[in-house]
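User
Class, as today's exercise, I want you to study this protein, comparing sequence with structure tokens, and judge whether sequence predicts the tokens.
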Amino acid sequence: MSLRFTPLHFSSIFFYFRKRVEFMMGHENHSFTSDFILLGLFSSSQSSLVFISFIFIIFIMTITENTIMILLILRDSRLHTPMYFLLSHLSFMDILHISNIVPKMVADFLSGRRTISFTGCGFQILLSLTLLGGECLLLAAMSYDHYVAICHPLHYPILMNDYVRILMARGSWIVGTVNFIVHTAYALQFPFCGPRAIDHFFCEVPAMLKLSCVDTTLYERGVYVSGLIFLLVPSSLILPSYVQILLTVLQMKSSDVRKKSFSTCSFHMIVVTMYYGPFIFTYMRPKSYHTLGQDKYLAIFYTILTPTLNPIIYSFRNKDVLKAMKNMLKVTFSIKDSNKNA
């Protein structure tokens, strides 16, 4: 099993896209060459240092958890199942997503500069839209996998065969990429007037639209339609899936299995709600209803918190994953001992 998408793919796509935007816009709007200012989450104070340190710790935890998850899935044949195949892609998305935001955020706080170039801002939009859209579809695919595994276990090998799982994973990446191409093409061509200060900790489309000095109503309608595709449709599929799962779990005879399954489904729904809820609230409201500072605090849920919780909720509470981790640790320590003895 291999993850076919790497940051190099996104870098090459963005390079082409940036040249295309420059070609379309020409040199008429000189404001495109100016830097933006990210106001961030916190002011530069001693008390804020505690919060930014906490976010950096979360970042290290997220990278570590998701990297371990990918390595376990690649190394242990018992985890070569559709569920863990999809989870490996989710972990890879989470690594890219949080790495796209937090290092720049921490560096800006420590240096006090808080500026970001047009190219850097465009790259953040590119990667965040790709990963946000792709993860919405991937979470829906994972809920379908859980539904089939619990409600139709006998048909699971047929309904979740190799072709279906690969189609789900690739489809999430491809549709997410199409999403960023369409939205970034429009978002970056708007002229920006006045102070180029973005009241956010990364370049996000709703926050940037506030800086535009032209009417963006038509584009906002496009964002609304996109929200229906990437947010409401997947969430409307996830909710019935888990309702049916819970109904099936309640009919199980074993109380232990019933409690375990109910606990797992409950945690899954909490994570999904934390991801979709703020995401829907941010992207499906008109620009006039966005208040200062509100969007950036909502974005913490789907950019920082859920990437940290995903591997814990979906995998590290699973016995198969814990066994795979123990085996990997045994192999690692046995290699170290043999090297010392040699």
